[in-house]
Amino acid sequence: MKILTLAALAVLLGMPAANARTVDVTPLPAQVTVADGNMIITSATSLVIDAPAEDAARLRDYADTEWRRFAPAGKKSPTAIELKTVKRLDGVDSPEGYRLTVTPRAATVEATTGAGLFYGLQTLIQLADSGDTIPEVAITDSPRFGYRGMMLDISRHYRDKDFILKQIDALARLKINRLHLHLTDAAGWRIEIKRYPRLTEYAAWRPELTWKEWTDGGARYAEASDFNAHGGFLTQDDAREIVRYAADRYITVIPEIEMPSHSEELTATFPEISCTHNPKGEPDVCVGNEQTFEILQNILDEVMEIFPSEYIHIGGDEASKKAWKECDLCSKRMTEEGLKDVDQLQSYLIHRIEQYLNSKGRSLIGWDEIMEGGLAPNATVMSWRGTEGGIKAARSGHQAVMSPGGYCYLDSYQDAPATQPVAISGYLPLERVYSYDPAPDSLGTDVTRWITGIQGNLWTEYVPTAQHAEYMLWPRMIAIAEIGWTPQALRSWDSFRPRALKVADNMRSHGYTVFDLRGEAGNRRQSTRPAEHLARGKKVTYNVPWWSNYNAAREATLTDGLRGGWSYGDGRWQGFLHRGDQRVDVTIDLEKVTDITYVGADFMQITGPGVWFPSKVEISVSDDGKNFTTITTI
Length: 634
Ligand code: ACM
Ligand code: ZN
What we know:
Layout: H1 2-13, E1 31-40, E2 46-50, H2 53-67, E3 80-85, E4 98-102, E5 106-111, H3 114-128, E6 133-141, E7 147-153, H4 161-173, E8 178-182, E9 184-185, E10 188-189, H5 198-201, E11 205-206, H6 211-216, E12 230-231, H7 236-247, E13 252-259, H8 264-269, H9 290-306, E14 311-315, H10 328-337, H11 342-359, E15 363-367, E16 380-383, H12 388-395, E17 400-402, H13 405-408, H14 430-434, H15 445-448, E18 451-458, H16 466-473, H17 476-485, H18 493-509, E19 539-542, E20 586-589, E21 618-621, E22 629-633
Parallel strand pairs: 2-3, 3-5, 7-8, 7-18, 8-13, 13-14, 14-15, 15-16, 16-17, 17-18
Antiparallel strand pairs: 1-6, 4-5, 4-6, 9-10, 11-12, 19-20, 21-22
Bound molecules: acetamide (ACM) and zinc ion.
């Protein structure tokens, strides 16, 4: 019955019948025309590649191992798959774009680069859908953004080469082109540096298995040879293999070496480059000490040897800057360089490291804090504390990659917390990830032209196993992939969800652990369906203002009938900045004397991001709005 109704509607609207056939490709291609015919692949179908030798070898190898074996090219082939590079492609500006034309006789991909051919091949593989039939289509496709990335934190819990290669396989199928590896952080140094073997003999190991136990236990390191040493690191050979494997799938691996902060494992190995020389490790390196730069540059030299990526990520986030204020060397540096505060001291380090990377032909990318104290001239900003950092960078003519916590932090809960393994915080279901637009038209083209991409980030403080990491990544990375590739105007949740289910099923059949979207519980019901109560719509007065970062529904928040959802960042929770012993008085005017049988309010506590319960809650009532009687204290 439903199908008949829809067909009738199509006739009424005058839609051409050919459009009834759609393609099931993720990310959704930019332009698709489908006809009625098919091309059938048989054992005699040939694969003809006309591309520069390196690309041709990669593409053939990929098709052979990841799709199927084709017959050698010959006159007798009844059907053929053809991949060929061309000088230019009308209507396709991006070097990663392609045109795919399928007729009953041949499936032809044209592109100006090997990457374009690879993406056309990916589309073709999805069209064949593990079968022998490819629908007759004409597709002209290119990505919305040049940077489509995923970040994996292998410091907090080490993940080995095989895990990374497995994720690269999945990313390649979704046309992701950047893998950012968070290689260093307090919880462990994860890349072999031949000049400094102590980094991986010592700072890559800890007595506790999980990050939580490790921090609770005092955040100490272990010797690799200790009986209880947990951790690990990528050897340079491992890292090179990852780089090569990714390059064969047109993915660039971007290494991140954190500085000046998140560096306890570095300063525990070399206490002399922290301000205090504390052997337990300090979060920040000493910016006044020349030896700091010597060690960082020697490390970066080896990192650049291994990773040919233009971008080198230097972290730059969440520096404490505390020890710098009391350090003679840092003071001396500030005086000599005319730096007026510790923000400028941080900026001095970032500028100097940028110059070093630029002198080697590389570019610096860092978290949005690298703007504090003045952004280095050629730096790219990765915006994580919301979108403001990225937008500000873009406004000043710097490239920005958008990765805001509220949409792109895949360590957040993907379903109702009670149904999920413990996560760091936040509620980020697939639909919310998908709703993100990194470069909305409202910003104007002066800004959006500098927004070069999107990245999904998996931090792993609360993600101790490989299986768990996969579970957090998938299917949410599928949404990141489609945001990065598909024109905004073509994106819709209704089209995406069934395709995401299909990709997820396919991944599961290939041994991936994927969150079960079909069993999703969804957001807290009380946060989406208003309840009736006596205070509904009544006026609320506050004696202190709520914090503007957590406005929620402003004065209506407490009396609109809606409770907060699973996340403090969902726009429903109202927040107050802690100011000593100051109390927050909230008065609800019920307008007339009213019998009350129940008073309820919700509070949230998530200590990691600094969200706290009030120390007490007092409920008072009044008949005249002046004299209040306390009826309970909780
Ligand atoms: C970050 O989440 N500290 C970049
Ligand atoms: Zn110092």
